[in-house]
C-alpha cells in the first residue's frame, strides 16, 4: 500500500467538486435535514466556491492516492484563509475526507502525519481543526493522535446552526 499526496490545481476542479460532494454526503447527509443539507452542499462544494479556494494562495487542496486510486482529499489554510484563528503560527486543517470504502486502513493517520510534516516545514507551532461535536468517532481519532479541545464555534449547515469543537495539536 503506497499512499501519496498531490496538490490540486484549477484543472482538478471538476474532480474536486465531485469528490467533495461525495465524501460530505457519505459522512453527514443522514444526520441533517435534507433542505439544509442541499443548501450547504450546493454552496460549499459548488464550482465557483471551489474555484475561488483553489486560486487562494493561502489555501491548498491535496488529493490523497492509494497507489493510483484517488481515495480522499484535504484542505489546508494559512494566514487570512483560516476560518477562525488566523494565527500565522498555525495551519488549519479545514477538510479531511476519505471515501467510505477506504476508511479503517490507517489512511487518516497517515494524512495527519503528512499535515504535521507540512506544518513543520513551514515552521508552524500547531495544527488546528473544527470537528462536529456530534461526531464522536472523529473526536476520538483526533484525541488519540494528540489533539485537544481548546474552544468551539458555530457551523451552519444551511440554516441549521451546529457546533464544532476546535481542536489543536501542538508541534
Automatic annotation (TrEMBL):
The keyword Iron-sulfur does not apply. Keywords: Acyltransferase, Ribonucleoprotein, Ribosomal protein, Transferase. InterPro entries: Acyl_CoA_acyltransferase, GNAT_dom, N-term/lysine_N-AcTrnsfr. SUPFAM superfamilies: Acyl-CoA N-acyltransferases (Nat). GO terms for cellular component: ribosome. The keyword Ribonucleoprotein applies. PROSITE patterns: GNAT. GO terms for molecular function: acyltransferase activity, transferring groups other than amino-acyl groups. Pfam families: Acetyltransf_1. Residues 3-171 form the N-acetyltransferase domain. This is Ribosomal protein S18 acetylase RimI.
Amino acid at each position: 500500500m503506497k499512499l501519496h499526496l498531490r496538490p490540486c490545481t484549477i484543472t482538478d476542479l471538476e474532480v474536486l467538486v465531485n469528490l467533495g460532494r461525495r465524501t460530505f454526503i457519505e459522512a453527514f447527509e443522514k444526520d441533517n435535514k435534507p433542505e439544509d443539507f442541499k443548501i450547504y452542499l450546493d454552496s460549499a462544494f459548488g464550482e465557483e466556491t471551489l474555484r475561488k479556494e483553489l486560486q487562494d494562495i493561502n489555501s491548498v487542496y491535496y488529493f490523497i492516492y492509494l497507489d493510483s486510486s484517488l481515495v480522499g482529499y484535504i484542505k489546508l489554510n494559512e494566514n487570512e484563509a483560516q476560518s477562525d484563528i488566523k494565527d500565522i503560527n498555525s495551519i488549519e486543517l479545514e477538510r479531511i475526507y476519505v471515501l467510505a470504502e477506504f476508511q479503517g486502513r490507517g489512511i487518516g493517520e497517515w494524512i495527519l502525519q503528512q499535515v504535521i510534516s507540512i506544518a513543520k516545514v513551514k515552521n508552524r507551532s500547531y495544527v488546528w481543526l473544527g470537528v462536529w461535536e456530534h461526531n464522536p468517532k472523529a473526536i476520538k481519532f483526533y484525541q488519540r493522535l494528540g489533539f485537544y479541545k481548546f474552544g468551539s464555534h458555530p457551523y451552519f449547515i444551511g440554516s441549521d446552526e451546529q457546533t464544532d469543537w476546535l481542536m489543536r495539536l501542538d508541534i
